[in-house]
Amino acid sequence: MTEFQPSGRSISASIIFQVNPDLNVSALWSRLERRERWVLLLIDGKRTLADLAHLTHRGESDVAYTLVRLLQLGYIEQASLAESNLRSQHNPL
């Protein structure tokens, strides 16, 4: 399992993110690069970093950098473990 460490924090390949619920995603498209938009579209609160890397045909470290940027911009947040487990039971990939 790969880990990425932005500023001393580690992001493992099994981490799950969700789009910030207070965000108007359609207003962001012009501000994001194509690669960032692609990752943002795939974030659903169930997919791991490894899943996103597989779906985008990019390396985990490349996707991790994109996730960190989206996280720093406030566009995404880490999904809570309980919430992620509940969603994955009801909606498997």
Structure description:
The protein has 93 residues and is an alpha+beta fold. The protein has a single domain (3-90), classed as Outer Surface Protein A, domain 3. 43% of the residues lie in helices and 11% in strands. The protein has four helices and four strands, in the order βββαααβα. It has helices spanning 34-42, 49-56, 60-72, 81-90; strands at 3-4, 11-12, 17-19, 76-78. The strands form two sheets. Strands 1-2 form a two-stranded antiparallel sheet. A hairpin with a 6-residue loop joins β1 (3-4) and β2 (11-12). α1 (34-42) crosses α3 and α2 (49-56) packs across α3 (60-72). The longest helix is centred in the C-terminal third of the chain and has 13 residues, at 60-72. It is globular. Mean pLDDT is 82; it is low at 1-6.
Q: Could you write a compact summary of the structure shown?
A:
By secondary structure, this protein is of the alpha+beta class. It has one domain: Outer Surface Protein A, domain 3 (Alpha-Beta Complex), CATH 3.90.930. It is built from 4 helices and 4 strands; from the N terminus they run βββαααβα.
The percent of residues in helical segments reads 40-55%
Rg computed from alpha carbons, rounded to a whole number of angstroms: 13 Å
**Which architecture name does CATH use?**
Alpha-Beta Complex
Described by the principal axes of the CA atoms, the overall outline is globular
- What is the SS-derived class? alpha+beta
Query: Major beta sheet, specifics?
Result: 2 strands, antiparallel
Span from first to last CA?
19 Å
Order of helices and strands: EEEHHHEH
**Global mean pLDDT:** 82
As laid out across the biggest beta sheet, the strand order is 1-2
The overall number of domains is 1
What is the highest CATH level, the class? Alpha Beta
